[in-house]
Write a structure and sequence with these properties.
about 180 residues, alpha/beta, Leucine Aminopeptidase, subunit E, domain 1, 6 strands, about 35% helix, binds adenosine-5'-diphosphate
């Protein structure tokens, strides 16, 4: 594994975009786009709980919910991932209700938890762009920018951040923003 020193340009090695089902991803942690109760929802949340089994919901029930923009960690149970980091994205309501800041907080707080737990790899879905209707273009720009900035600030132990996109269109939008952020790639 290539050593990443403080001040190095963020190697594109560290951020990957794939199309797929996040419940199948082998990473130290996968991120759940949860709702504030942490007691289950639709979309990626339902898929993660289905794949992890009922012990995940039992642990989530002890956490007393999660504020929008924040994150909490649990074990991964039957998932290939060791941990699930649950974060609550903002519901899009026109863009004037701190949605961008809250979405950036989701990514940076998940990365802080990953660092606290010395995780080497983490996989994100496209937070807020499903039922919460955050437009995919600004959401993907915020996702990639926030992760890039966090990795630059803290080279740390985190070696890989994977964005797991669920449709060809979502993947294409993320790829376009990725090329803008990493023109040399
Ligand atoms: P939110 O409520 O934060 O919008 P959703 O679960 O509705 O969360 O959608 C977030 C994104 O996750 C959407 O792009 C959706 O297509 C995607 N998604 C749904 N299921 C999966 C899955 N199994 N793996 C990865 N992404 C998924």
């Amino acid at each position: 594994m290539q050593e990443i020193k403080k001040g190095d340009k963020i190697s594109t090695l560290r951020i990957e975009l794939i199309k797929g089902d996040i419940t199948k991803v082998m990473a130290d942690a996968i991120v759940n786009a949860a709702n504030s109760t942490l007691l289950g929802g639709g979309g990626v949340d339902a898929a993660i709980h289905r794949a992890a089994g009922p012990k995940l919901l039992a642990e989530c029930a002890t956490l007393k919910g999660c504020a929008t923009g924040s994150a909490k960690i649990t074990k991964g149970y039957n998932l290939p991932a060791k941990f699930v980091i649950h974060t609550v994205g903002p519901v899009w309501s026109g863009g004037k209700h701190s949605e961008e800041k809250l979405l950036a907080g989701c990514y940076s707080n998940c990365l802080s938890l990953a660092r606290e737990h010395s995780l080497e790899s983490i996989a994100f879905p496209s937070i807020s762009t499903g039922a919460y209707r955050f437009p995919i273009k600004p959401a993907s720009r915020i996702a990639l920018n926030t992760v890039k900035t966090c990795l630059e600030k803290d080279p740390g132990v985190l070696k890989k951040v994977i964005f797991v996109l669920f449709s060809d269109n979502d993947l294409a939008v993320y790829q376009e923003n990725y090329r803008d952020l990493f023109p040399e790639s």
